[in-house]
Amino acid sequence: MKIIYEDEQILVVDKPAGLVVNKSETVSEETLQDQLSDYFKLGEGLGIGDRAGIVHRLDKETSGILVVAKTEKAFRFLQKQFKLRKVQKEYKALVHGHVGQNAGVVDAQIGRIGRFGKFGIVKEGRESQTEYVVGGKYNIKEAIFEKLTESENKNRKNYLKNHGRDYSLLSLFPRTGRTHQIRVHIKSLGHPVVSDTIYAPSKLLRFDLLWCPRLFLHAALLSFVHPSTKKGVDFKSDLPVDLKKTLENLKTDN
Predict the structure, then answer these.
(1) Predicted model pTM
(2) Among 34, 59, 166, 196, which one carries the catalytic annotation?
(3) 238 is catalytic
(4) Which of helix, strand or coil describes residue 168?
(5) Which of 52, 107, 172, 222 is most exposed by smallest CB count within 10 Å?
(6) Is a pLDDT exceeding 80 seen at residue 227?
């Protein structure tokens, strides 16, 4: 657990990918909540909010910034900001294809589909909104593409030439906080996040994982009003090393 900032009211951490945030009966592995319980020396207690002060969550596969409350007052204060959509969040994502518009908004209702933790755009879903800005358009380097596809048959290689060579790096600003919101919204535009084991087409996912070891989604910025000073604070997190190395496989599209 990498600590970015701490004072008497809040703790801000940089969560690594692969770490589940909250404990549950269906999770047997160590979670961020477990680590926080050890850090705060809670023993058998559950701590603030019955979850060691965790105010919000990130998907297991997503890395980045998360804020934890250290007092009941701070917990309630931060929860209210999230509920009223006063918290500013920015994510970085690498997605398939060249996104046509340089900026846009996805405004679509999200709901659960099926029984396996998957979500989608549904008529009776919950209101959700994500703004995005294209930060760059890329192509996978030719030598790397050829190396990764050298053992593929002709049909498979042609498919990857059409669907696995172009990419866009996005900054995303979710205005609501639904489960899998960014992943579902971007998929609905026809541009799934690279190495998304739930929402990327299986044909692409197999190729993605050869050069991008995990979901390319990172919570890069979190801005809110501090519960004690009542002043705005910003916390940032650079792309982790594994995602930076992934970008080395790409070249800027001219």
Answers:
(1) 0.94
(2) 59
(3) no
(4) strand
(5) 107
(6) yes
